[in-house]
Amino acid sequence: AQTVTQSQPEMSVQEAETVTLSCTYDTSESDYYLFWYKQPPSRQMILVIRQEAYKQQNATENRFSVNFQKAAKSFSLKISDSQLGDAAMYFCAYRRDDKIIFGKGTRLHILP
Amino acid sequence: EAGVAQSPRYKIIEKRQSVAFWCNPISGHATLYWYQQILGQGPKLLIQFQNNGVVDDSQLPKDRFSAERLKGVDSTLKIQPAKLEDSAVYLCASSLDLRGGGYEQYFGPGTRLTVT
Hints:
The complex is a heterodimer of chains A (112) and B (116). Chain A has 112 residues and is an all-beta fold. Chain A has no helices and twelve strands. With 116 residues, chain B is mainly β.
């Protein structure tokens, strides 16, 4: 069965610094999607970034980028130039067709 | 473009009572999802619909939970009777489609349920 593990329940980073959130997953499939979602306090969950497993190139969205290591089944999120608005819960998610699994999340604190 | 709408936003009930949540997805989205998010955990998929058909309800506690999506648009999730462990945020999400799995899900604000 597929699983998604986020080993860091909480992390803190100084404003303007860079932080990396970890995610590992387990699957026997070769074709799937991986996502990072952001859930700000009392606000809706939104998509941060998406990675197709068949693409070797790491996805990038402005200050957000991923380090996708398919063989190691690792999918970390790097946030550069951290801003106060980045404070939120971050969830890593695996999806293949109708199978969707979220990790337990990492709470990110931004220190001014 | 209007987002995913959910109501009510908050609900407090006593155990053994029943409760219903409503969700209206983004117009044109074929796939609708209901998640349960217990405090401190990630969302757990309860059920997903493709148009008005159920695609996966393997994690739905069918002895007490039910969901429907009549006419392939809005959806209702019901709990009857509620238990203390049902206290959670119930999230609704929608996407254009589910085939392949790459479509972005758009989430609603959620309904926070407290069972006392």
